[in-house]
Amino acid sequence: MDYLIISDTHGDRQILLDIVNHYQGHVKAMFYNGDSELKRSDELFDTLLPVIGNMDSDPMFPDDRDYQDKYLKLYQTHGHLVHTEVSLNHLREVVAPKDVDVVTSGHTHMLGAEMIDGKLFINPGSISLPKGTYAYLKGTYAILSVEPETFHVQFYTRDMQPVPELVFEFNR
């Protein structure tokens, strides 16, 4: 089962619309990790599962989200409320008592996927304002593929092309 994880469009509604239209009906759920700078009432959020980012002014976005279906247990946050720009330590403390497989965040604009404390932490990077080693890609998002024994994380560029060197596999 596949899940879309995207974050930090910072007002670029068109790229968000393009990605939603491309994946709608092809993924189980679409997680938006904050900083859209759009209103919660925007029709895109009828499809996306959003959380608030530090640049979002609409208080109708939730701070975080616990999501569960028969394939996945996931915790979603933007990251600013747990200071992921400093480290993942506070986020690790928040999710330690939670029965989740995957933790998603945004905020830093730097992509990443790693197992920590038996949980898969994914930051899809920023689709509009990327930072760090992969900023040259001009924006990224992630597709999480869940299988009974493994998680696969593939990062994609703004033009919806997979980045061959940014595919990862983790044991569940």
Unreliable stretches (pLDDT < 50, length at least 5) are none
Give the overall average pLDDT: 97
Helix/strand structural class: mainly beta
* Count of helical regions: 2
What is the strand arrangement across the widest sheet? 3-2-1-9-10-11
Distance between termini? 14 Å
Main β-sheet: number of strands, strand sense, barrel status?
6 strands, mixed
Defining key terms:
172 residues, mainly beta, 5-stranded mixed β-sheet, 2 helices, 10% helix, 34% strand, globular
Explain what the structure shows:
- With 172 residues, this protein is mainly β.
- Helix content is 10%, strand content 34%.
- It contains 2 helices and 11 strands; from the N terminus they run βαββββαββββββ.
- The chain has helices at 13-23, 89-95; strands at residues 2-6, 29-32, 49-50, 64-68, 73-77, 102-104, 112-116, 119-123, 140-146, 150-157, 162-171.
- The chain has a 6-stranded mixed beta sheet, with no helix packed on it. The protein has a 5-stranded mixed beta sheet with strand order 4-5-6-8-7, with no helix packed on it.
- A hairpin with a 3-residue loop joins strand 9 and strand 10 (150-157).
- It is globular and about 35 Å long.
Topology:
Blueprint: E1 2-6, H1 13-23, E2 29-32, E3 49-50, E4 64-68, E5 73-77, H2 89-95, E6 102-104, E7 112-116, E8 119-123, E9 140-146, E10 150-157, E11 162-171
Parallel strand pairs: 1-2, 2-3, 5-6, 6-8
Antiparallel strand pairs: 1-9, 4-5, 7-8, 9-10, 10-11
Give a short synopsis of this structure:
This protein has 2 helices and 11 strands. By secondary structure, the protein is mainly beta.
